[in-house]
Amino acid sequence: MRRPFIAGNWKMHKTVAEAVAFARQLKEMAPCCADRDVLVAPPFTALSAVAEVLRGTGIHAAAQNLHEAPQGAFTGEVSAAMIAEAGCDYVIIGHSERRTLFGEDDALIGRKIVAALGCGLKVIFCIGETLQEREAGLTSAVVERQVKEGLKALRIDDIRHLVIAYEPVWAIGTGKTATPGQAEEVHAFIRSLMGRLYSKDAADALAILYGGSVKPDNMAELMAQPNVDGGLIGGASLDFDSFARMVMYDKKD
Ligand code: PEP
After folding, report:
1. Is the pLDDT of residue 1 over 90?
2. Any residues with CB less than 8 A from the CB of 73 and at least 6 apart, and which?
3. How far, in Å, CA of 93 to CA of 125, rounded?
4. Is the CB of 212 under 6 A from ligand 1?
5. 109-129 pLDDT per residue, tens
6. Where are the beta strands (DSSP E) in the chain?
7. CB contact at 8 A, 65 and 98
8. H-helix or E-strand spanning residue 61
């Protein structure tokens, strides 16, 4: 009952012109994507233009972050309502780069998730352990804390607006991918945790994406794992042909 979900996180890459050119190519693929969720997350500057190209195609546009307040004196920030107005239906929250480079903690991430849901946005909620935490045997404890703290305010009805991305920090942008077995182990743990916190039905319906050096060559083996529903892809999503191969990971051309 879960559909494959392939998401590209462009981070601070692509001008508006470059993002629109990519979105136009993606639009051509839309008829082949009816059985899966496909999403791109451009920088704020390109959100409206990309969302406009993708409007009506079923392919989603996402923001990479938001501010938790509805408005105010927060120079350089963007609210959930602004993102929704730009034509996005998703936002990425809690990416490890936000946690480590911008000091976002579980409590702030929780407030951002509430702000996003309040404006009708769906959330891709990122969690994952550092190498040090993994080597200390703390992976499950870290992931459990991030889920419990980040989703503290959510009720069962909110979970259908949520996607979780398990992104081990040691695998992001490093070329080191978790093995399919490592990914599956943590994904299964997250699903069972969500079952305990909410309900088995909510957990069974939840898309859990893997992120961390996903590429066209390793996408299919990751997707073969029963609890891996998709990928959140950084570097390899920037090139259209590479992204298209991952979107169509299960189809021969
Ligand atoms: C990411 O930014 O979410 C990510 C997983 O990056 P990469 O695919 O480049 O490791």
Report:
1. no
2. none
3. 5
4. yes
5. 999 999 999 999 999 999 999
6. 5-9, 37-41, 60-63, 90-93, 122-127, 162-166, 207-211, 230-233
7. yes
8. strand 60-63
Stated pTM of the model? 0.97
**Which residue among 167, 170, 174 has the greatest number of ligand 1 atoms within 8 angstroms of its CB, and so is best to mutate?**
167
Backbone angles phi, psi at 214, to 5 degrees: -75, 140
Residue whose token pair is 């077995």 = 181
Q: Is the shortest distance between the CB of 230 and ligand 1 below 6 Å?
A: no
| Amino acid at residue number 198 | Y
Asked if 64 and 94 count as a contact pair (C-beta separation under 8 A), the reply is no
**Burial classification of residue 77, based on how many CB atoms lie within 10 Å of its CB (0-12 exposed, 13-18 middle, 19 or more buried):** middle
Name the residue of 10, 98, 233, 243 whose CB sits within 8 Å of the most ligand 1 atoms, as the mutation to test its pocket: 233
Token reading at 7: 């998401």
Which tokens belong to 243?
Answer: 């992204």
75 CA → ligand 1 middle, Å: 27
Tokens standing for residue 34 = 């009816």
Instruction: Report helix, strand or coil for 108.
Output: helix
